[in-house]
Amino acid sequence: MNKYNPPRMNPSSLRSRFATRFLRTLSKINAQKPTSSSSPTEIFRRYRRIKAAADKSMAYSVRSRRTWSRAMLWKLRTRPCGRRSVKTSTIIKSREARKTRHEKQNKNTTTTTTTTTGEDGVVFGVEADELRELVPGGEAMDLYNLLDETAHYIKCLTTQVQVMKKIADFYSP
Amino acid sequence: MLHRLESLESCNYNGMGVAVLERQAASLKWQQQNYVVQHNNLVELCASSMPQLQGLTGSNLGSGQMVELKRPEVFLGSDDFQEFVNFPVAGAEFGDSEKLDMVPPEAAADYCISRTSSCQMTALNTSVMKEEREDMILEKMESTTGSGRKSFNKRKPEAVADHKGKNKRIKGEGEPEVKTKCSTEISRNSSKENSKASEVQKLDYIHVRARRGQATDSHSLAERARREKISKKMKCLQDLVPSCNKITGKAGMLDEIINYVQSLQRQVEFLSMKIAALNSSVQFNVENLTMKEFPAYVANFPAAAKLPAMASLPYFQLNPLQKESVNCMLNESMLPPQTATEGIASASVSISEQSLSSSSMTQLQPFSTWNMDPQDIVPGIISNFKREYNFKCHYSPSYKTYSNDSDSYHS
Lengths: 173, 411
Fold this sequence. Notes:
Largest interface: A-B, 76 and 82 residues
Shape of chain A: globular
Number of helices of chain A: 7
Main location (chain B): nucleus
Subcellular location (chain B): Nucleus
Strand content of chain B: under 5%
Number of strands of chain B: 2
Order of helices and strands of chain A: HHHHHHH
Low-confidence stretches of chain A: 106-119
Mean pLDDT of chain B: 53
Helix content of chain B: 55-70%
Number of strands of chain A: 0
Domain BHLH (chain B): 214-264
InterPro entries (chain B): bHLH_dom, bHLH_ZIP_TF, HLH_DNA-bd_sf
Structural class of chain A: mainly alpha
Helix content of chain A: 55-70%
Distance between the termini of chain A: 32 Å
Radius of gyration of chain B: 42 Å
Distance between the termini of chain B: 95 Å
Strand order of the largest sheet of chain B: 1-2
Oligomer: heterodimer
Organism (chain B): Hibiscus sabdariffa (roselle)
Low-confidence stretches of chain B: 41-132, 134-202, 291-381, 388-411
Structural class of chain B: mainly alpha
């Protein structure tokens, strides 16, 4: 009579916090949907809403402890109508910037790097800019804090991807 | 103590016939002893070399100064001290060599008592006062010594520069630390040893020792500390990002980190698209899912929540294409396939390539007729889907090559 008890998740972990919030938002989105849900427009609209919900629930799970979560929440709040996600455009921009980096190798970018002395400014010039574009709220940070925020952001992104993947697998045929 | 001094003095007077060199050596030894007493170094050593003075030094040091036995070459540079040690101890000189003949023993004793007591006092004072007294003693030594002046002259500018360096580097430290630092400074100075860069103690400031041949400028020290912090952080990031193990060098690692973050963001996008495309009749049951672990629940999940038969064609076409693209992308990441359905889907992909490519082409047309979104987001996303699918044929396990393909696409 051995009952298989699945291991309990830590209720206060980042993953469970994000999962509960995200699922609640998903059910809300599903409740709002119109009857014909299979048209591409609808799917796309829902996609954007779901993506925003994922980001928002992620940022809310982290609260305001991190700069990137604060920046993300602010961004989500102050974008009322245009739900356009600028992420892909920034990705394209960063790729182009990296392509032209080889031509600009000797040029020392001093705009956003805090140190111009030493080898830090030369090594991290362009990459730090790209990282700043990727990580929300990274424009106004020095390199050390930027790396710190990146580490936490990566951790939260991996959690988000895992949870969403499991949800998608769970409800897929 | 006085009678002992008198006896010593009598010995000294008996030794007046000793060679001038020996007398000067003994006087230098006495002055050295003062110097040693100042720094709490080698008192025992001096005492051992001058057995007559042992009682005196012991009584002088009764106030609890620490006595450390160090090797002679640690102190004063090996050569000078060895010379003095080898000389026979004819007697103690308790005053200046010039004054010895003229000053009566009691006055001399008084003089040396006062000197010793002053030595005693300064050892308990703060570091600054100690250094001042040290300077004074050094000056006195310089003014009174004869032939032995050379060594002290050598040492004095070193000591003075040493003090200056010490003052510059030490800010607000306690006394015992200064004592150890004094000894270590002298040892470093004399034996020309350079310690490694390390944080000595974290009191109010972070003390970083300069490596040999490196600048001791405060700016460069701060820079170095900052750089070490950053490299520590990069090591932490290296543990987080899975593909950073082979790559050394900061620039390459940063590139990997950027790639990883981009791929994670793209995964989020694709997954949200996948969830959006799921049939909305499925109720997202929050309670059930939060109570149990996901994989276990998925394993036990009955077929009731499966999607009903798809009526519309576009959805049909989108779903498998999307699933394959998502699966392929997810396979790229280091997560293993979670469910059996995913594994089957990825396995059946190669079989139905052609049919799906045709379906993707038909799928693109309704999307392109949209006008609701003037930006290139929509075709961008759909083309991403399509490219994911095309990329699948040339699938390679690292997402780095994936991003290279993206680069070529966007060129």
